Amino acid sequence: MAEQPRIATPSETSAILKRHGFRFKKSLGQNFLTNPQILTRIVAAGDVGPDDDVIEIGPGIGALTQYLAEAAHQVLALEIDPRLIPVLADTLAGYPNTTVVEADVLKADLPTLIADHFDGHHQLKVVANLPYYITTPILMHLMQTGVAFERLVVMMQKEVAARLVAQPNSKDYGSLSIAIQQTMDVEIAFEVNRNAFVPAPNVDSAIIKLSRRQTPRAEVTDQAAFDRLVRGSFVSRRKTLWNNLVNLYGKDQKPLIQAALDASEIPASSRAEQLSISDFATLTTNLSHQGLS
């Protein structure tokens, strides 16, 4: 395959946008990368190679898609903006291993799309520059589809990235940290200055690398009860764990809540951000023993 011109340069991006008469839509959080070095580093963070099938979410005009196509076995790009479908048909014409589908990832049937477009004999990864306004819903959706992604490498707002990697006893640690870290090892690969995009967003970004753990960080017997407990415990960060649990389970359940806390060796005066994932798993079990879930 002859080398294709780099999409992710300011001049080429400008030419593509002008050729197709494309105008950015703020409501879709469209910011296109124009720095090839950053794209090279994203692909490297994903350790993307010929043994990988890759899903990209929000390919834009194909800047990252191009690099993924040159490294991976197959690429499936999901784009919500119908105006970008003909643009991508143009920019990715030289990459027969790449398929673009007009789809909203939050509504798409990912297992079916994967079965339709991939052969099932390669590792499955997600590599994407996620729209800032909907990063968390997309991440949680990907985690809850039941698809065994080997790795997710996603760009997001730096502040959200800090929440994903946060540890107990820090201001950024919360229900999102726990939901992700329960089944994934998470690290910030590198940060990206806002000036690497057209148009430049109002915030800086970070590339997060999530790798699936062989076993969950803590054994959870009732996932729904665990999720409810974690969310409820962080409803009001200024309140103690006790107050949040009483709000969650009801004032009439105070003796049962106290018994569960005692069995878990967790002081009622604790705050949610002081508890590890293992603490929440233990507390879930002991609340269940008291008939609370």
UniProtKB/TrEMBL annotation:
It is found in: Cytoplasm. CDD domains: AdoMet_MTases (cd02440). Residues 38-214 form the Ribosomal RNA adenine methylase transferase N-terminal domain. InterPro entries: KsgA/Erm, rRNA_Ade_diMease-like_C, rRNA_Ade_Mease_Trfase_CS, rRNA_Ade_methylase_Trfase_N, rRNA_adenine_dimethylase, SAM-dependent_MTases_sf. Keywords: Cytoplasm, Methyltransferase, RNA-binding, rRNA processing, S-adenosyl-L-methionine, Transferase. It catalyses: adenosine(2085) in 23S rRNA + 2 S-adenosyl-L-methionine = N(6)-dimethyladenosine(2085) in 23S rRNA + 2 S-adenosyl-L-homocysteine + 2 H(+); adenosine(1518)/adenosine(1519) in 16S rRNA + 4 S-adenosyl-L-methionine = N(6)-dimethyladenosine(1518)/N(6)-dimethyladenosine(1519) in 16S rRNA + 4 S-adenosyl-L-homocysteine + 4 H(+). It comes from the Bacteria. Belongs to the class I-like SAM-binding methyltransferase superfamily. rRNA adenine N(6)-methyltransferase family. RsmA subfamily. NCBIfam families: ksgA. Specifically dimethylates two adjacent adenosines (A1518 and A1519) in the loop of a conserved hairpin near the 3'-end of 16S rRNA in the 30S particle. May play a critical role in biogenesis of 30S subunits. This is Ribosomal RNA small subunit methyltransferase A. It comes from Lacticaseibacillus brantae DSM 23927. The lineage of its organism: Bacteria, Bacillati, Bacillota, Bacilli, Lactobacillales.
